[in-house]
Amino acid sequence: MIPESEKKSERIKDADDAYLRETAIKCAEIGDEMFRLIPAASRDIREFSLLQVRVLQILHNGPVIMKSLASILSMPPSTLSYIVDSLERRGLLERKRISHDRRKVTVHLTTSGIEVMEKLGNFKVNLWMSILKEFVKQEGTSLLDGFTAVHRAIMNFSRTHAPQSDSRKDG
Fold first, then answer.
1. Is pLDDT above 70 for 10?
2. Element housing 65 (H / E)
3. Greater confidence, 131 or 65?
4. Which is nearest to 53 in space by CA: 34, 30, 25?
5. Architecture of the domain delimited by 49-152
6. Domain boundaries, the chain
7. Would you say the pTM of this structure is higher than 0.70?
8. How far from chain centre, in Å, is Cα 57?
């Protein structure tokens, strides 16, 4: 008898492109629908643009050099400067020149920025909890297994496909 874990890997490995495309489209639709629910969030979360939230999310993992941040977001440095300026005026992040190379500037969250990210994280968890209450136990268990597998696949993909850079170092 074939173990269940091997059956799953056979199904995915042998999946045709139509199945993979249909699944990918459904994942994208779920992400879009979740984003549409952000207006239900508290005022201090919903007043941010998608790009502002993305910048805050990246910086929540630690300081990043401006040039690297622009590269991560695939945007010109001038556009990023505009976004960073707006977040800096609100007291959510700060710029800091690197002492040994004053041309390089790192950006990091302030205490207020960290608080906003914690509120956003709590909002997302509470939103998911509300949605999951609609599931029966077996569906929820299957979903958790599926999300765990998706997370593992994303982490594996990131390790092999993410650009390697020193964007989090001081030089």
1. no
2. strand 64-65
3. 65
4. 34
5. Orthogonal Bundle (1.10)
6. 49-152
7. no
8. 6
